[in-house]
Amino acid sequence: MKAAELHQKSVEELKAELTALLKAQFSLRMQHATGQLAKPSELNRVRKDIARVHTIMAQKAA
């Protein structure tokens, strides 16, 4: 997900996106723990997307 896409979303949409990303991260962590994760790079991608959403929410709040 690109930061430009996130800048166009409202705060409510960003909160919904953050919730979805956190659920995805939990699911990926469980897959990793049980040895079923096919792409370990997905964990890093989701973690960075979460950080992007947090950053843009902070920018909009300021």
From TrEMBL:
UniProt GO molecular function: structural constituent of ribosome
GO cellular component: cytosolic large ribosomal subunit
Presence of keyword Mitochondrion: no
One Pfam family of this chain: Ribosomal_L29
SUPFAM superfamilies per record: Ribosomal protein L29 (L29p) (SSF46561)
NCBIfam families per the UniProt record, alphabetical: L29
Similarity comment: Belongs to the universal ribosomal protein uL29 family.
The protein's name: Large ribosomal subunit protein uL29
Organism listed in the record: Iodobacter fluviatilis
